């Protein structure tokens, strides 16, 4: 390459100096080209191996020349011929590669040109090697990789276009230089044009998926367009098209399976509810055959317990995720159910639920419902004897480390002094203790004075 | 004596409702499991109230049957359902003189709603 003739670009304001330089360059076997700095788009610029300027043109066009040099694909030396030797370091700092102190001999010029042409040759070889590696990499990809200019015309492309459009005659060679709408089906081309605009405005990558029905079966293409920035300006837009059909099909299968599971679970909750309805119906029919009031009450209480459990299934059936229910809403339902059972006659017992919404699982909700049913029923039945009014309150709170606290209070008669919850003969209270400590692995405390107060804590795993 | 028709395909549930209603002193003029049968009974007995399961077997569900009933006879309707959604309740309540009750319910819940509907009819 060094032995061959090179184009040496000359920018000299003095005609005498320009002629002298032209002679020197030619005598060294190279071609001299007088460059027009006002027309930097000339293809000539790309064919220039070294640019030499005089001081005056260097000062005037230095910034432009340095920018042209930086944009060059291969190393292009920028030299300035100076008469004042003391300004050498300033030219180098400015971005010039070397300074030629005038006057200089042919031998000196040859030495400089040879050095810089060797560097150019090396940079050219490096570029070719890296281009070849990049091309191999891009071609080895199963994705269609391409680059568009700002107007949406293909600048480069690997040869995978036909993998995405098997019926298409497009390959890398005849895609380049053509706009998107000549290459893609109309809908897709217009979608990609919109993406391109978005990238140019936002200067950020954009990814979209499109169903393409060009072949016998529809495929899903994922397009990513990303800006290629030079400073703050988007000079071109890179693009990757990937076939995401298998991923989409897997997603679809997973979604269908999830929907099927949801439908089955919902049906299960529904059937459980209906079975509980039948059990309540059977208990009611049996109860009508019993004349003893205390036995009849036992039946009624069992009906309530089943209804309390059924409320959990009812809430679950109505939730979106089918696995957790809102404890506060559930307690509200339960209170309404028990008020309808016990608030009869002239007695008026009001109920209140305070606290926050806490989602709990079915494993926690069922024992929770049963023990609350027991405590609230107890309050209704025993706390307000010989009274016309009373209040039952339930407070729900989430404590630290996922612990849930429920406090049940009433302003009724309270328990006798020295009453021990764990030694109580009441099977209902024994059940409550067992549900809290055994099933929920929680704690229960009871206090009594002006009314009674139960504090229950447990963790919803 | 007010007459009530029960349209419910689940036998035990239907029986427990009938027992509750008769114990309250009402006349149960029919206990059927399909919408088509319900319409026949309505034409004959002209009941004051219909207890209607929404999820019925056969050609018509409870809401469709209720729409047909409204064309031939004015009666209160209490819908009972295991498949609840707000749209369904809005449609049922939009028919007027109606109530909605979700399964599972206790016979005393039916008692409360029956009293409410008759109070409204007066």
Task: Set out the fold topology.
The complex is a heterodimer of chains A (461) and B (122).
Chain A lengths: L6 E5 L3 H13 L3 E4 L13 E7 H17 L5 E6 L5 H7 L3 E4 L4 H35 L3 E5 L5 E4 L3 H4 L7 H4 L4 H4 L2 H17 L3 E7 L6 E12 L2 E11 L1 H44 L4 H26 L5 E3 H16 L5 E8 L3 E3 H22 L5 E10 L4 E8 L16 H13 L3 E7 L1 E9 L2
Parallel strand pairs in A: 1-2, 1-3, 3-4, 4-5, 12-14
Antiparallel strand pairs in A: 6-7, 6-10, 8-9, 9-10, 11-13, 14-15, 15-17, 16-17
Chain B lengths: L2 E5 L3 H13 L3 E6 L2 H11 L3 E5 L8 H11 L3 E6 L4 H9 L3 E5 L4 H15 L1
Parallel strand pairs in B: 1-2, 1-3, 3-4, 4-5
Helix pairs in contact in B: 1-5, 2-3
Model description:
The complex is a heterodimer of chains A (461) and B (122). With 461 residues, chain A is an alpha/beta fold. Among the domains of chain A are: 7-136, Response regulator (Rossmann fold); 141-243, Beta-Lactamase, CATH 3.30.450. Chain A has 13 helices and 17 strands. In chain A, the strands form 4 sheets. Chain A has a 5-stranded parallel beta sheet with strand order 2-1-3-4-5, with helices on both faces. In chain A, strands 7-6-10-9-8 form a 5-stranded antiparallel beta sheet, sandwiched between helices. In chain A, strand 3 (48-54), helix 2 and strand 4 (77-82) form a beta-alpha-beta unit. In chain A, helix 10 packs antiparallel against helix 11, helix 11 packs parallel to helix 12 and helix 12 runs antiparallel to helix 13. Chain A starts with 6 loop residues before the first strand and ends with a strand. The mean pLDDT of chain A is 88. Chain B is α/β, with parallel strands linked by helices. In chain B, helix 1 packs across helix 5 and helix 2 (35-45) runs parallel beside helix 3 (62-72). Chain B is globular. The interface between A and B is medium-sized, with 22 and 21 residues.
